[in-house]
Amino acid sequence: MREFVPGLVSVVTPVYNGEGHLARMLDSVLAQTYPSIQMILADDGSTDGTLALAEGYRERFATRGYGYEIVHGEHSCAAGAMNLGLPWVRGEYLIWPDSDDVLEPESVAVRVEFLRSRPEYHCVRSLPYYVDGATGKPAPARDESFGDLSRERLFWDILWSRTFVCCGCYMLESARFFQIYPESRIPVYPVGQNFQMLLPYLYRYPCPTIQRELYGVWQRSGSHSRQPLTREQEDEKYRAYEAMTDEIAEICGMEKKERAGILEWQLHRRVGLAVRQRDWGRTAKALFQMRRLGLRKRCAYLDRILISCIKWRLRGLNPKRRGQK
């Protein structure tokens, strides 16, 4: 069984072609007020100068007294890169900030102090703030909601996007995390790593929020998550999310009633995708499936969409109205 060093915080950061932004993250780790940190940089087969930049930080981490590991593998995805780094984790606590974001100087210390002072908790999160990557000025959050910050059971809130994911905000106890993943491997899907890292853990443990902005999210227009997708790529992405959440349900050991909640989330997303793509046949199919399975209590507004779909289909089948706008 792996032993973890008391008080040590392991920072695992996956990176791919981060030559232009990685220094900002590494500098923010070196600026931490907390004295005991292990930095693990997991390179996902970068083809630019990422590895050379990372190697240039070895002496600075040694001087600071922090551990520093660089692991490198063939290009896969963020989850694959996380799996390069997880076997190296030795810290009592685990965080995994993105390679283009920043930790405020007290980010690690504040969260460790909370967990030490509140042993009934096994994870904690802080608040994010957002920065326009082009200007360096404060920016509103593009995709995430803060939600009810008094809530501690966050599994469903995160799944339904009622609260923020922001990976670098969360701190977990390593021993409990690796009880979930004893092989030091999270499920690999081409849709990021945060659901796999967080959801099985938050299914088991409550997670309070420290209401301080301790993690900065740099919103870059050229980042992987901001790239426009073709219809085929969108479809593939949504299928990957469904397969991933099915596997997460297995890891959590969910019973039938809770799995229905996963299915409702999947069908709700199918409806949203089909509406966005103006595919009314697929929209109606997903809505009928939700009704048949009795999963539509929280989605009553979709009745209006279903009626519109039926009208659209009838209009398309009416020879007298074809070609009309």
Task: Report on this structure.
The chain has 325 residues and is of the alpha/beta class. It folds into two domains: 7-126 and 148-212, Spore Coat Polysaccharide Biosynthesis Protein SpsA, Chain A; 255-317, no CATH class. It is 42% helix and 18% strand. It has twelve helices and eight strands. It has helices at residues 22-30, 50-55, 58-64, 78-85, 107-117, 155-159, 174-180, 194-204, 231-252, 256-276, 280-292, 302-317, and strands at 5-15, 37-44, 67-73, 91-95, 102-103, 123-132, 170-173, 209-219. The chain has an eight-stranded mixed β-sheet, with helices on both faces. Strand 1 (5-15), helix 1 (22-30) and strand 2 (37-44) form a beta-alpha-beta unit.
Topology:
Elements: E1 5-15, H1 22-30, E2 37-44, H2 50-55, H3 58-64, E3 67-73, H4 78-85, E4 91-95, E5 102-103, H5 107-117, E6 123-132, H6 155-159, E7 170-173, H7 174-180, H8 194-204, E8 209-219, H9 231-252, H10 256-276, H11 280-292, H12 302-317
Parallel strand pairs: 1-2, 1-4, 2-3, 6-8
Antiparallel strand pairs: 4-7, 5-8, 6-7
Helix pairs in contact: 8-9, 9-10, 10-11, 11-12
Q: Output the number of helix runs.
A: 12
CATH architecture of the largest domain: Alpha-Beta Complex
Mean pLDDT across residues:
89
In the CATH hierarchy, the third-tier topology of the largest domain is known as Spore Coat Polysaccharide Biosynthesis Protein SpsA, Chain A
Order of neighbouring strands in the sheet with most strands: 3-2-1-4-7-6-8-5
